[in-house]
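Tutorial sheet, problem 5. The two components below are modelled jointly, 1016 residues in total.
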Amino acid sequence: MTETITRTGADEPGAAETGAPVLEIEDLHVTFPGRGKSPDVRAVRGVGYSVRRGEILGIVGESGSGKSVSSMAAMGLLPDSARITGSIRLHGEELLGLDDKAMSAKRGSRISMVFQDPLSGLTPVYTVGDQIVEAIRVHNPKMPKDKAAARAVELLELVGIPNAAHRFKSFPHEFSGGMRQRVMIAIAIANDPDVIICDEPTTALDVTIQAQILEVLKAAQRETGAAIVMITHDLGVVAGLVDRMLVMYAGRPVEVGAVDDVYYRTRMPYTMGLLGSVPRLDTDERAPLVPIRGNPPSLSDLPPGCPFAPRCPIATAECDQGEPELLEIGGQGHTAACIRAPEIDREGWTAADVYPVPEAAPPPEAQVRREDRETVLQVDGLVKHHPLMKGAVFKRRVGTVYAVDGVGFDIAEGETLGLVGESGCGKSTTLMEILSLERPQGGTVDLLGRRSGTMNARERFAVRRDVQVVFQDPMSSLDPRMLVFDVVAEPLRTHGLPKDRLRARVHELLDLVGLDPAHAGRYPQEFSGGQRQRIGIARALALEPRLLVLDEPVSALDVSIQAGVINLLDELKARLGLSYLFVAHDLSVVRHIADRVAVMYLGRIVEIGAVDRIFRDPAHPYTQALLSAIPIPDPEKERNRSHIVLQGDLPSPADPPSGCRFRPRCPKFAGLSEAERTPCIEVSPDLEATGGDDHTAACHYAQGRSVV
Amino acid sequence: MSMSAERTGAPDAPEAAGQEPAPARTPGRWSAVLRQMAGTRRVLFGVVVIVLMVVMAWVGPLLSPWDFGERDYSAFLQPPSADHWWGTDSTGRDVFVSTMVGLQKSVIIGLLVAVLSTLVAAVVGAFAGYFLGVTDRVLMWITDLMLVLPSFLILAILYPVLRDQGWLVFVGLLAAFLWMVTAKMVRGMTISLKEREYVLAARYMGVPAWTIIFRHIIPNMSSLLIVDATINVSSAIIVETSLSYFGFGVQPPDVSLGSLISDGASQAVTHPWTFVFSTGLLVLLVLAVNLIGDGLRDALDPQSERRS
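Model answer (structure tokens):
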């Protein structure tokens, strides 16, 4: 598979004699002219690669690295204002400069694309079947309608839509996100294309669904023999799937090579940083992550030399002289754009040698036993049901959404509880119920020894001071009309900090989270995502809370930035003795930061226990599937792992299955005899100890099993 | 595309440090807005025009040899001359002086009505949208009631009672019939804004509801409100015009731009000077207010594209 040569515009031609590539891109430049006085944005600067039939090429990079733009250029989907130079050849035929009509004939038949967002990829007013038929008939106008329909059903079956003939007539809104993405893949492969470009096809999906979609993609590729260009930011997805990969930074490829070469013999400091900053599911010891300091450069104002030099720990004066070319290093077809690459190769440096590893402070509470510590948050049997209403004038109740249905956990002082689960499992609802401080519909919430719903206004105000929240989206969690200073000062003013101490405290806080206090006079928009999240953390810390509730605090950030924020949270916890309730869907992040983990499924906690036990020896089949679905950024391990791929989607919380809620998707249930199944169907399992510590799982047949 | 977010961000530290050597001094929000506004040419133009018009409206009559209400029985419907700068009308009044006096009234009525109605709209809409429930139902019921009431008729009926109360009551009445549609829009925006995470964050840190409304919700709608206020300036002037025309608004001998326009409209073709100056000033006034509104919106909205 590695015969294909991936080269860049800088290379001399003639390296690609080994077989005819399907798609060749050479020295591609894309520039978006700046509006008004703003400078041009050079989104892509000299990208080149080629893919052969049956090969999967991964393009990896952070947001803004130009990875999507380069493939949009290949599809001819960029706006007319973009200036594109270079060469894009499909089967040797130049695509650049073709008019839209000629491109339309190619799009969808020879080269097709799967987009990130399955929600907006399908037209809501046509049935799914009609949209596939349209995709087929647009390129084969002579094909009769019934034949096209038969082919569409065939395609739906191929991508794993159960009951395809029936679902053919469904509308997109009747499909879940994962199902819609399957339909998008069906449309993409409808005309047996030679190249399929997948632009972050699984980013918007849950991990268990991601595992399903990756399987579908592999099947689609087997079926059509097409070349796949896989664009992603997830180094785990790439590791197990692709043959060769291209790492992009600031619009240029910086390292290209076979997957093993790039992962195990990394020669470019940026790639090293990227790999080092990913929290790993498969490492036990909790070493701090290796963040890359700084932010990606602005594409309209690039530094003169190597664009990574300002962030690079081993940059020298020569790095600023000029941009390094991609040069062959070490293995076959392995190239890196770094002037110190030969040195790295010679010395065999790894990420640990290049990046200074930050010191980890031991948590002061670690010595005290959990039972002896004060309980900060105690939740018992929490229930939140939403009524499902129908009718516009006379509303009547037609059902109940069991968003949270009997959730219980506790957090001790100085402890981090990770609450994980897929979207729709009720974890955010749980948070909001806790934070509202109102009497829950059922169960109890005790915050710092005070019960929600029984507090008077003054007590509530006092509890608010000790419980603060950090939100997921750094764009919307800061008021865009307030200066950073006012944002951070808001809790201080609310809780009556004297005016004369305000300024000093805000600057101290900004300093604490690693921001320059001089930036207090700016608006949140002027900061990058990671910096904005730090502002959010500074605001949450302003009142020196005892419990910090974190709602997916890093999931909107790029990996290299994410690592910095995770390290910051770790460090703050150790320094200030905070307790965290950490909600996330990313289990690798949770493994890194949490002491205990609670896994939620459909409004219930299915397993809870110490982080090491849950990850090493998960007892509930859902936890096992969840862990197994997460790709590990290690090609060797990833290839040898067997994934548990769950069937189907999360059931609707308005109509949960009887007995055990996980039953319809449970691989263990499928293997049980009729008699053994009865308790699963009839009795909802309670959390029961599965030996050792306080590790409990809600399964009638709980059994530990290592899956990572 | 994800790129656009990246493009805007990333301030580099050394440059910033150079700009602000003293970290202790953090400029306030309103001074930043003012600075921003002063730097925009459109806004400067608008402000200059308004200031000039205001100065002209109040100083102009003092410079003219004629007094307001004084009639020149030797000159009816005379074109502009050295004696009568903008000519005279059919009763021999000096057009320049009466236009200036009319401008005074119109500026005051227009600006006051616009500000007042937008303020009412913002408060009613934001409270209804933020609290929902009973508050919402009562406030929206009042809004709907005001919407279906024929405002013209009510003003006509109320007028005889209020005519001796002075023009401030008139301003209040005009504003009372202009706020409803905006209030409904504000309510809708509030419902979506209150789910924003910064509003949730403020609520979870214990900020009282009314502070959240005035600190987070209304400022984040300011572009809507400002645009609305500028539109209201012109509609207030126009409503005032039509009311004056029918005899319910500004009463003779008092004049406003509106009553002057309606006076001159009938002879606009034969004696243009009785019509052109008051209409031209009205257009200029509305234009200047719009330019300021535009600039203020850009200055208040840090995400606005046309920051200059």
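Marking note: Residues 1-26 of chain B have pLDDT under 50 and may be disordered. Full credit if you identified this.
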